[in-house]
Write a structure and sequence with these properties.
CATH topology of the largest domain in chain A: MetI-like fold
Number of domains of chain A: 2
Distance between the termini of chain B: 33 Å
Oligomer: heterodimer
Order of helices and strands of chain A: HHHHHHHHHHHHHHHHHHHH
Radius of gyration of chain B: 18 Å
Number of strands of chain B: 11
Order of helices and strands of chain B: EEEHEEEHHHEHEHEEEHH
Number of domains of chain B: 2
CATH class of the largest domain in chain B: Alpha Beta
CATH topology of the largest domain in chain B: Rossmann fold
Strand content of chain A: under 5%
Number of helices of chain A: 20
Helix content of chain B: 25-40%
Shape of chain B: globular
Helix content of chain A: over 70%
CATH superfamily of the largest domain in chain B: P-loop containing nucleotide triphosphate hydrolases
CATH architecture of the largest domain in chain B: 3-Layer(aba) Sandwich
Largest sheet of chain B: 11 strands, mixed
Radius of gyration of chain A: 24 Å
CATH architecture of the largest domain in chain A: Orthogonal Bundle
Largest interface: A-B, 23 and 29 residues
Strand content of chain B: 15-25%
Chain lengths: 519, 230
């Protein structure tokens, strides 16, 4: 039988080994440093952080999913101009930098925001965005679109024939719902809520900016504070272990429930329905959701756009650093992802699953847990702020790798299924196979994955906060500092710049993958 | 001589036995009911299906252990014969040198071969912009440049209309005769076998029978073939 060329497989094994060593090494460093003894260990505040982490994740998941149901139903059964654009926009929060969205939320819901201005005019007391409700508001802002996409997918997966049958039998709306839609929701809602719960358990930037204090501190934030305020590495390590436990628990839970796939395509077609009910209900759901999601961005653009020209040089320098980190992270992620995907395809079977799983390890550890481990490993040897940018790029690449693999692994398998025999019969092997078959045909998933990785890295405010000092701040960190100094106009300008750079990074990669992609 | 010496091919729930020889330069049709193993027989010769027993020999030397590209065969598959992202010339050039850049002399040979299959000047196009018949010609041009003594064709023209198919088989015969190549072509159409004008291997009931002259087989078909032809 065909002996497949080995060098590419070796590269994939090396990539999987690198990721595994990085993640498992960080975890080992964390575990070795976490000590409980006199004067060490966790205080009541830390257990409060655990409780708050779980509570805010659960509430955010429940609220996001509950609000998403009417929006998804409306999108599933109505056609209107701009529907496609709205569905596309629902995917955008994934590449929207968290800190940018938070600033936008502040401009709408903050002390001097639109909502409080309106309440003041009406003579009502002002609301505060700081504290637990701010954390939940921001989490819902990020996850309502995700929940809507997941549930919309569920709705569109119901065969149109069932609704036709319901119409021909003359079922009223309530019975049609109970017979057709309720079973779908029972299947889709738990998985969707769990995904969002999982995402919210690693909430850092949101808690950092809107939370804090004894009643709104997440574990991730507590890790950061143990570093920055106390420089108590063993407590940070203990907290990191707790965070790991929470992630592992939620992840295990997710494995037992069927988790829907948010990346799937085909959300474009609305259902044909005969029992749609009054139009105002759906219209209201769609308008409110669009307003909730778009108003913060609009507020930000209005405030930040004019401030762009007057941004201080430090912001532009930070933007340069962020661009370099994003580019490095994207290329690293693509290199690792490609090597792992090709190796997994070549080996097949159980060993392939192992290699792929190693690449997915980034899912098991949160950025701050990885950052803590890397910090513990590195600081005896180097000043951590010197390595802030490479470490950030590396951690970001590891975090984006699972998404890249989700796109690349099936694509490589498809290419080998369709063209593997032809390539074998021609003797196309090794690098030539990579250059002439795999790379050209992988252009689209590579571009998409690279765009995701670049945008995620561009907007990341996580591990950089542990490592960086003033001389190595990235744009998100610089933006956070401007917010802390209440220089809101400059912050808004920097946020617009960051938003633009993130979208541009995604667009350039994704576009690059589509050029000249015939057949 | 291409010899399958007491060969057995076993896939999950499928088995095929073959004990036969094909003379060098012969033109052989492979015919039989669907699912009988016509494609599997070619895949075993081409190196894509494992031979669990017996030996595969070419000019007396065993080739059953070689990877597909090292065997003396060029294969044209049912579909996906061309890389859609490469130009026609680049696709054909793969028959000369899959792992290296083409020199000026190579490029001239590619152009010449394209002209010989009636595709003069189309080298810069992508396969997607060609008709089905033209795409078949590109694959044949590449197989010609591969210049292997055995050509395996696994129903590559099944999607073409009758007139076009006749034209393609004529082209195949010409290319094979020019090189003295041995030809094995899977088909479900006895007309194709007649046009090929040589021998036919009947694949049925888990067995590939030794080649017999096509006219003789079709005039006096065994029961399985009679059932199949209807």
């Amino acid at each position: 039988m065909a002996r497949r060329p080995r060098p590419l497989t070796a590269a994939g094994l090396a990539a999987a080994g690198l990721v595994a060593a990085l993640v498992l090494g960080s975890l080992a460093a964390v575990a070795s440093r976490a000590q409980i003894g006199p004067g060490a260990g966790l205080g009541p505040g830390d257990w409060g952080a655990v409780r708050f982490t779980l509570w805010q994740a659960a509430v955010s998941a429940a609220v996001s999913v509950a609000l998403a149901v009417p929006v998804a139903r409306a999108l599933a059964r109505r056609r209107f101009p701009g529907r496609g654009l709205l569905v596309t926009l629902l995917g955008a929060p994934f590449i929207l930098p968290v800190i940018v969205a938070i600033l936008g939320l502040l401009m709408v819901f903050g002390r001097a925001g639109w909502v409080n201005d309106a309440l003041g005019v009406a003579g009502l007391p002002a609301v505060s965005i700081y504290g637990w409700h701010g954390v939940i508001l921001a989490n819902v802002f990020f996850n309502l679109p995700l929940a809507t996409r997941l549930i919309l997918q569920g709705w569109l997966s119901i065969p149109a024939e069932r609704f036709r049958l319901a119409a021909s039998l003359g079922l009223d709306r309530r019975r049609a719902f109970r017979l057709i839609e309720a079973p779908m929701l029972r299947e889709v809602l738990p998985g969707s809520a769990l995904v969002i719960f999982l995402i919210c358990t690693t909430s850092f930037a949101v808690a950092l900016t809107l939370g804090g204090g004894p009643r709104a501190t997440t574990i991730e934030l507590a890790i950061y504070q143990a570093f920055r305020f106390d420089f108590d590495l063993s407590r940070a390590a203990l907290l990191a272990l707790l965070q790991l436990g929470v992630t592992a628990l939620a992840g295990t839970l997710a494995l037992t429930v069927a988790v829907p796939d948010a990346m799937g395509a085909g959300l474009g077609r609305p259902l044909v329905r005969w029992d749609r009910g009054p139009v105002w209900g759906d219209g209201l759901a769609i308008c409110l959701a669009a307003l909730f999601l778009l108003a913060p961005l609009a507020a930000l653009l209005l405030r930040g756009g004019p401030a762009l020209a007057g941004l201080p040089a430090s912001v532009w320098v930070a933007a340069g650093r962020s661009t370099a980190v994003a580019l490095g992270s994207a290329l690293l992620c693509l290199g690792l992802g490609l090597a792992i995907a090709v190796a997994a395809q070549r080996m097949g079977g159980r060993r392939a699953r192992g290699v792929e799983l190693a690449g997915m390890l980034g899912l098991a550890a949160s950025p701050l847990v990885l950052g803590t481990g890397l910090f513990i490993m590195l600081y005896p040897f180097v000043r951590p702020d010197r390595l802030a940018l490479p470490v950030t790029a590396l951690v970001n690449a590891t975090m984006a790798l699972p998404f890249a693999l989700r796109a690349l692994v099936p694509a490589v398998a498809r290419i080998e299924r369709d063209y593997g025999r032809l390539a074998d019969s021609l003797g196309l092997g090794g690098l030539a196979r990579l250059r002439r078959l795999l790379l050209p045909r992988l252009a689209r998933p590579l571009g998409f994955a690279g765009g995701l990785a670049a945008a995620l890295s561009m907007g990341d405010l996580g591990v950089i906060a542990l490592f960086a000092d003033a001389q190595s701040a990235t744009l998100p960190l610089q933006l956070y500092r401007l917010m802390g100094a209440y220089r809101m106009d400059e912050a808004a300008g920097a946020a617009v710049l960051l938003l633009g750079l993130s979208l541009l990074a995604f667009w350039i990669f994704d576009r690059g993958g589509r050029v000249d992609a015939d057949a | 001589m291409l010899t399958l010496e007491r060969v057995a091919i076993r896939l999950e729930d499928f088995a095929l036995a073959a004990d036969l020889s094909v003379a060098e330069g012969a033109r052989v049709a492979v015919i039989g009911p669907s699912g009988a193993g016509k494609s599997t027989l070619l895949a075993a010769i081409g190196g894509f299906a494992p031979i669990s027993h017996g030996r595969l020999l070419w000019r007396g030397a065993a080739i059953g252990h070689l990877p597909p590209a090292r065997r003396p065969v060029a294969t044209i598959f049912q579909d996906n014969n061309l890389f859609p992202h490469l130009t026609v010339a680049a696709n054909v050039g793969l028959g000369l040198a899959p792992n290296a850049r083409l020199g000026a002399a190579d490029r001239a040979r590619v152009a010449e071969t394209l002209a010989s299959v009636g595709l003069e000047g189309l080298g810069a196009r992508k396969p997607g912009s060609l008709s089905g018949g033209q795409q078949s010609r590109v694959a044949l041009a590449r197989a010609a440049l591969q210049d292997r003594p055995v050509m395996l064709l696994d129903e590559p023209f099944a999607a073409l209309g009758p007139a076009l198919k006749v034209e393609m088989i004529d082209l195949v015969i010409r290319l094979a005769d020019d090189r003295g190549a041995t030809l094995l072509m899977v088909t479900h159409d006895p007309g194709d076998a007649r046009q090929l004008g040589g021998e036919t291997i009947l694949v049925a009931e888990g067995r590939a029978r030794p080649p017999v002259p096509t006219t003789q087989l079709l005039e006096n078909p065994p029961d399985v073939l009679r059932d199949y032809l209807g």
